[in-house]
Amino acid sequence: xxxxxxxxxxxxxxxxxxxxxxILEAIVVLLALPVVGAVGGGLTPVSTSYVIGAAVLxxxxxGVQGRSWAIWANLAVQLLLVGGWVIYPGLGFIxxxxxxxxxxxxxxxxxxxxxxxRGLLPxxxxxxx
Length: 129
Hints:
Blueprint: H1 10-38, H2 45-62, H3 70-82, H4 89-118
């Protein structure tokens, strides 16, 4: 029989949210392939490599969300995606959209960290028993 944890770990679920967001973002980036192929200059070796490479990078990043630097690396990857504006403006728009999402996630991380340091998280409250 296992002993239950004394307090829930807020960072475990937070890592899951970050990994899930990266997987969702990879799917959205891959869905841009047909759009890039049908509009503008079409699919070139450069645009195809960029889109597929960005999606692979996002999936790989989902595996390192337990690291302390992961949130900052996630934000840096968004700048790479915003740079996709050069290939096709829709890719840059995807980058801007997810940059806003990641800025919100970074804010929520800072808020959870602030509350954890003050002992205000629900798992840190004493049982009323």
